[in-house]
Design goal:
This protein is of the alpha+beta class. Helices cover 28% and strands 26% of the residues. α1 crosses α4 (85-106). It is globular and about 60 Å long.
Protein backbone atom coordinates (compact mmCIF):
# COMPACT_ATOMS: atom_id res chain seq x y z
CA UNK A 1 0.00 0.00 0.00
CA UNK A 2 1.18 3.51 -0.66
CA UNK A 3 1.42 6.14 2.08
CA UNK A 4 -2.04 7.60 1.50
CA UNK A 5 -3.73 4.22 1.71
CA UNK A 6 -1.88 3.40 4.92
CA UNK A 7 -2.84 6.77 6.41
CA UNK A 8 -6.47 6.20 5.38
CA UNK A 9 -6.48 2.82 7.12
CA UNK A 10 -5.02 4.27 10.32
CA UNK A 11 -7.51 7.16 10.39
CA UNK A 12 -10.34 4.72 9.76
CA UNK A 13 -9.20 2.44 12.57
CA UNK A 14 -8.76 5.37 14.96
CA UNK A 15 -12.25 6.68 14.18
CA UNK A 16 -13.87 3.25 14.59
CA UNK A 17 -12.10 2.66 17.89
CA UNK A 18 -13.16 6.07 19.23
CA UNK A 19 -16.75 5.36 18.22
CA UNK A 20 -16.89 2.22 20.36
CA UNK A 21 -15.04 3.92 23.22
CA UNK A 22 -17.71 6.63 23.15
CA UNK A 23 -20.49 4.03 23.21
CA UNK A 24 -18.98 2.03 26.06
CA UNK A 25 -17.79 5.01 28.12
CA UNK A 26 -19.54 8.26 27.08
CA UNK A 27 -17.61 10.09 29.83
CA UNK A 28 -14.43 9.66 27.78
CA UNK A 29 -15.78 11.27 24.61
CA UNK A 30 -14.71 14.75 25.68
CA UNK A 31 -11.11 13.70 26.39
CA UNK A 32 -8.57 14.61 23.72
CA UNK A 33 -6.22 11.63 24.04
CA UNK A 34 -3.95 9.88 21.56
CA UNK A 35 -4.23 6.19 20.72
CA UNK A 36 -0.74 4.69 20.32
CA UNK A 37 -0.26 2.42 17.31
CA UNK A 38 2.84 0.50 16.24
CA UNK A 39 3.29 -0.41 12.58
CA UNK A 40 4.93 -3.77 11.90
CA UNK A 41 6.86 -4.65 8.76
CA UNK A 42 6.08 -7.58 6.51
CA UNK A 43 2.36 -7.97 6.29
CA UNK A 44 1.26 -4.42 7.09
CA UNK A 45 -0.03 -4.46 10.67
CA UNK A 46 -1.33 -1.76 12.99
CA UNK A 47 -0.80 -2.96 16.56
CA UNK A 48 -2.18 -1.50 19.77
CA UNK A 49 -0.33 -2.66 22.92
CA UNK A 50 -2.69 -4.67 25.09
CA UNK A 51 -1.66 -2.94 28.31
CA UNK A 52 -0.58 0.53 29.34
CA UNK A 53 2.73 -1.03 30.34
CA UNK A 54 3.02 -2.07 26.73
CA UNK A 55 2.47 1.54 25.68
CA UNK A 56 5.45 2.60 27.77
CA UNK A 57 7.59 -0.21 26.36
CA UNK A 58 6.73 1.04 22.90
CA UNK A 59 8.34 4.38 23.76
CA UNK A 60 4.98 6.05 24.34
CA UNK A 61 5.20 6.59 28.07
CA UNK A 62 4.57 10.33 27.88
CA UNK A 63 1.40 9.85 25.87
CA UNK A 64 0.23 7.08 28.17
CA UNK A 65 0.91 9.14 31.29
CA UNK A 66 -0.95 12.15 29.95
CA UNK A 67 -3.89 9.96 29.00
CA UNK A 68 -3.93 8.03 32.25
CA UNK A 69 -4.01 11.18 34.35
CA UNK A 70 -7.02 12.61 32.53
CA UNK A 71 -8.81 9.29 32.24
CA UNK A 72 -8.28 8.44 35.90
CA UNK A 73 -9.74 11.77 36.95
CA UNK A 74 -12.73 11.33 34.69
CA UNK A 75 -13.35 7.78 35.83
CA UNK A 76 -13.06 8.77 39.49
CA UNK A 77 -15.75 11.39 38.91
CA UNK A 78 -18.15 8.87 37.35
CA UNK A 79 -17.16 5.81 39.41
CA UNK A 80 -16.24 3.19 36.85
CA UNK A 81 -16.09 0.61 39.63
CA UNK A 82 -13.96 -2.34 38.49
CA UNK A 83 -14.44 -1.58 34.80
CA UNK A 84 -11.36 0.51 33.96
CA UNK A 85 -9.96 2.17 30.87
CA UNK A 86 -8.03 -0.97 29.81
CA UNK A 87 -11.32 -2.83 29.72
CA UNK A 88 -12.87 -0.03 27.66
CA UNK A 89 -10.11 -0.22 25.06
CA UNK A 90 -10.20 -4.01 24.94
CA UNK A 91 -13.99 -4.06 24.61
CA UNK A 92 -13.82 -1.38 21.90
CA UNK A 93 -11.43 -3.45 19.80
CA UNK A 94 -13.69 -6.45 20.34
CA UNK A 95 -16.60 -4.27 19.18
CA UNK A 96 -14.85 -3.64 15.86
CA UNK A 97 -14.14 -7.36 15.57
CA UNK A 98 -17.78 -8.23 16.27
CA UNK A 99 -18.98 -5.69 13.70
CA UNK A 100 -16.88 -7.47 11.08
CA UNK A 101 -18.03 -10.91 12.24
CA UNK A 102 -21.74 -10.03 12.22
CA UNK A 103 -21.41 -8.25 8.86
CA UNK A 104 -19.77 -11.31 7.31
CA UNK A 105 -22.40 -13.59 8.81
CA UNK A 106 -25.37 -11.56 7.56
CA UNK A 107 -23.75 -10.48 4.27
CA UNK A 108 -25.14 -6.97 4.70
CA UNK A 109 -24.28 -4.51 7.50
CA UNK A 110 -27.51 -2.59 6.92
CA UNK A 111 -29.59 -5.48 8.33
CA UNK A 112 -30.62 -4.40 11.82
CA UNK A 113 -33.69 -6.57 12.44
CA UNK A 114 -33.22 -10.26 13.09
CA UNK A 115 -35.89 -12.94 12.67
CA UNK A 116 -36.05 -16.35 14.35
CA UNK A 117 -33.43 -15.47 16.92
CA UNK A 118 -32.31 -18.02 19.49
CA UNK A 119 -31.71 -17.11 23.13
CA UNK A 120 -29.11 -18.70 25.38
CA UNK A 121 -30.10 -17.43 28.82
CA UNK A 122 -27.24 -19.22 30.57
CA UNK A 123 -24.55 -17.20 28.73
CA UNK A 124 -26.54 -14.08 27.71
CA UNK A 125 -25.92 -14.86 24.05
CA UNK A 126 -28.36 -14.25 21.20
CA UNK A 127 -28.26 -16.44 18.09
CA UNK A 128 -28.91 -14.56 14.83
CA UNK A 129 -29.75 -16.50 11.67
CA UNK A 130 -28.51 -15.59 8.19
CA UNK A 131 -30.07 -16.39 4.82
CA UNK A 132 -28.30 -19.77 4.74
CA UNK A 133 -29.86 -20.76 8.06
CA UNK A 134 -26.54 -20.55 9.91
CA UNK A 135 -26.59 -19.27 13.50
CA UNK A 136 -24.06 -16.88 15.05
CA UNK A 137 -24.20 -16.37 18.80
CA UNK A 138 -23.52 -12.77 19.84
CA UNK A 139 -23.38 -11.13 23.29
CA UNK A 140 -26.55 -9.12 23.89
CA UNK A 141 -24.73 -5.83 24.63
CA UNK A 142 -22.70 -6.21 21.42
CA UNK A 143 -25.84 -6.67 19.34
CA UNK A 144 -27.39 -3.57 20.90
CA UNK A 145 -24.38 -1.45 19.92
CA UNK A 146 -24.27 -3.05 16.47
CA UNK A 147 -27.89 -2.09 15.86
CA UNK A 148 -26.95 1.60 16.10
CA UNK A 149 -23.48 1.40 14.56
CA UNK A 150 -22.91 3.32 11.28
CA UNK A 151 -22.77 1.01 8.27
CA UNK A 152 -19.64 2.84 7.06
CA UNK A 153 -17.58 2.37 10.22
CA UNK A 154 -15.06 0.02 8.55
CA UNK A 155 -15.20 1.59 5.10
CA UNK A 156 -11.87 3.46 5.27
CA UNK A 157 -10.08 0.29 6.38
CA UNK A 158 -11.89 -2.11 4.07
CA UNK A 159 -11.14 0.13 1.08
CA UNK A 160 -7.60 -1.30 1.05
CA UNK A 161 -8.77 -4.90 0.61
CA UNK A 162 -7.77 -6.35 -2.77
CA UNK A 163 -7.05 -9.69 -4.39
CA UNK A 164 -4.30 -11.23 -2.27
CA UNK A 165 -4.72 -8.61 0.48
CA UNK A 166 -7.11 -9.33 3.36
CA UNK A 167 -8.18 -7.34 6.38
CA UNK A 168 -7.65 -9.21 9.66
CA UNK A 169 -9.03 -7.86 12.97
CA UNK A 170 -7.97 -9.75 16.06
CA UNK A 171 -7.37 -9.62 19.79
CA UNK A 172 -6.25 -12.00 22.50
CA UNK A 173 -9.06 -13.58 24.50
CA UNK A 174 -7.84 -15.66 27.45
CA UNK A 175 -4.36 -15.85 25.88
CA UNK A 176 -5.77 -17.19 22.61
CA UNK A 177 -5.85 -15.15 19.40
CA UNK A 178 -9.40 -14.52 18.21
CA UNK A 179 -9.60 -12.92 14.78
CA UNK A 180 -11.90 -12.18 11.86
CA UNK A 181 -10.70 -12.08 8.25
CA UNK A 182 -12.36 -10.10 5.45
CA UNK A 183 -11.21 -10.97 1.93
CA UNK A 184 -11.85 -9.38 -1.46
CA UNK A 185 -15.05 -11.39 -1.99
CA UNK A 186 -16.50 -9.80 1.16
CA UNK A 187 -15.22 -6.27 0.66
CA UNK A 188 -18.55 -5.07 -0.76
CA UNK A 189 -20.23 -5.80 2.59
CA UNK A 190 -18.23 -3.08 4.33
CA UNK A 191 -17.10 -0.77 1.56
CA UNK A 192 -19.38 0.93 -0.95
CA UNK A 193 -18.22 1.62 -4.48
CA UNK A 194 -18.69 5.38 -4.72
CA UNK A 195 -17.20 5.96 -8.18
CA UNK A 196 -19.19 7.74 -10.86
CA UNK A 197 -18.69 7.81 -14.58
CA UNK A 198 -16.38 10.63 -15.65
CA UNK A 199 -19.11 12.42 -17.57
CA UNK A 200 -21.65 12.26 -14.73
CA UNK A 201 -22.47 15.44 -12.81
CA UNK A 202 -23.34 14.52 -9.25
CA UNK A 203 -26.32 16.34 -7.69
CA UNK A 204 -26.78 18.96 -10.44
CA UNK A 205 -29.41 20.64 -8.28
CA UNK A 206 -26.63 21.67 -5.87
CA UNK A 207 -25.45 24.72 -7.77
CA UNK A 208 -22.30 26.68 -7.03
CA UNK A 209 -22.81 29.27 -4.31
CA UNK A 210 -26.21 27.94 -3.23
CA UNK A 211 -26.98 28.08 0.49
CA UNK A 212 -28.01 24.63 1.69
CA UNK A 213 -29.17 22.73 4.75
CA UNK A 214 -28.45 19.02 4.23
CA UNK A 215 -28.86 15.97 6.43
CA UNK A 216 -26.32 13.17 6.32
CA UNK A 217 -23.60 11.30 8.19
CA UNK A 218 -20.07 12.42 9.04
CA UNK A 219 -17.94 9.52 7.78
CA UNK A 220 -14.32 10.65 8.18
CA UNK A 221 -11.92 13.45 9.00
CA UNK A 222 -8.71 14.58 7.34
CA UNK A 223 -6.64 16.94 9.46
CA UNK A 224 -4.11 17.47 6.66
CA UNK A 225 -6.71 18.94 4.30
CA UNK A 226 -8.91 20.21 7.16
CA UNK A 227 -11.88 18.41 5.66
CA UNK A 228 -14.57 15.90 6.59
CA UNK A 229 -16.55 13.33 4.64
CA UNK A 230 -20.29 13.99 4.56
CA UNK A 231 -22.46 11.10 3.36
CA UNK A 232 -25.43 12.60 1.54
CA UNK A 233 -27.86 10.39 -0.42
CA UNK A 234 -25.34 7.52 -0.48
CA UNK A 235 -22.45 9.64 -1.78
CA UNK A 236 -19.51 11.02 0.19
CA UNK A 237 -19.01 14.77 -0.31
CA UNK A 238 -15.85 16.51 0.87
CA UNK A 239 -16.77 19.26 3.32
CA UNK A 240 -14.69 22.10 4.74
CA UNK A 241 -15.39 24.36 7.73
CA UNK A 242 -15.85 27.98 6.72
CA UNK A 243 -13.82 29.08 9.73
CA UNK A 244 -11.43 27.21 12.00
CA UNK A 245 -10.28 23.61 12.29
CA UNK A 246 -12.23 20.37 11.95
CA UNK A 247 -10.91 19.39 15.41
CA UNK A 248 -13.91 21.13 16.97
CA UNK A 249 -16.19 18.72 15.08
CA UNK A 250 -14.28 15.45 15.58
CA UNK A 251 -16.77 14.24 18.21
CA UNK A 252 -19.37 14.06 15.42
CA UNK A 253 -17.58 11.32 13.45
CA UNK A 254 -20.13 8.62 12.48
CA UNK A 255 -23.01 10.82 13.70
CA UNK A 256 -26.09 11.86 11.77
CA UNK A 257 -25.85 15.63 11.32
CA UNK A 258 -27.53 18.62 9.75
CA UNK A 259 -25.06 20.68 7.71
CA UNK A 260 -25.50 24.41 7.22
CA UNK A 261 -23.36 25.91 4.49
CA UNK A 262 -22.90 26.58 0.79
CA UNK A 263 -22.01 24.60 -2.32
CA UNK A 264 -18.73 24.91 -4.21
CA UNK A 265 -18.23 23.66 -7.77
CA UNK A 266 -14.69 24.95 -8.12
CA UNK A 267 -12.28 22.34 -9.45
CA UNK A 268 -8.54 22.05 -8.75
CA UNK A 269 -7.84 24.77 -11.32
CA UNK A 270 -10.31 27.18 -9.76
CA UNK A 271 -12.81 26.74 -12.60
CA UNK A 272 -16.53 26.02 -12.16
CA UNK A 273 -16.18 22.53 -13.59
CA UNK A 274 -16.23 20.21 -10.57
CA UNK A 275 -18.63 17.34 -11.27
CA UNK A 276 -18.77 16.42 -7.57
CA UNK A 277 -19.85 19.32 -5.34
CA UNK A 278 -17.92 20.32 -2.24
CA UNK A 279 -19.57 21.77 0.86
CA UNK A 280 -18.33 24.76 2.83
CA UNK A 281 -20.11 24.60 6.16
CA UNK A 282 -20.50 27.13 8.93
CA UNK A 283 -22.14 24.72 11.35
CA UNK A 284 -22.78 21.02 11.95
CA UNK A 285 -25.69 20.09 14.19
CA UNK A 286 -26.03 16.55 15.49
CA UNK A 287 -29.42 15.00 14.87
CA UNK A 288 -30.34 13.46 18.19
CA UNK A 289 -32.22 10.23 18.52
CA UNK A 290 -32.17 8.89 14.97
CA UNK A 291 -33.86 5.64 14.12
CA UNK A 292 -34.76 3.27 16.93
CA UNK A 293 -34.28 -0.32 15.88
CA UNK A 294 -36.37 -3.23 17.05
CA UNK A 295 -33.63 -5.85 17.11
CA UNK A 296 -35.78 -8.90 17.29
CA UNK A 297 -38.58 -9.36 14.79
CA UNK A 298 -40.10 -12.70 15.60
Amino acid sequence: MDGRKQAQALVGFDSALRYFIGKLAPELQSLDFEIPVRIKKGSWEALIPETVAGWAQAGLGVVATAYLTKAAQKMAEKDFSEFGFKDVFRASIDGIKWFARIGKHMGDVSIRKFSDVEFDSSSSLIGIVNSQGEVLYVPKHVLEIYSQCPTTILENIAANIADGRCLVIGSFVEDALDEVTIDSSEKHIFCQDDKEEEDEILFPELEHGAEVVLEGEITRENKTSNSMGFKYNNHILTSYPEIGSIVQYKHLIFSECRLYGRVSRLDEKGQLNARRPKLIFRDLEEIKGGENYDLFNQ
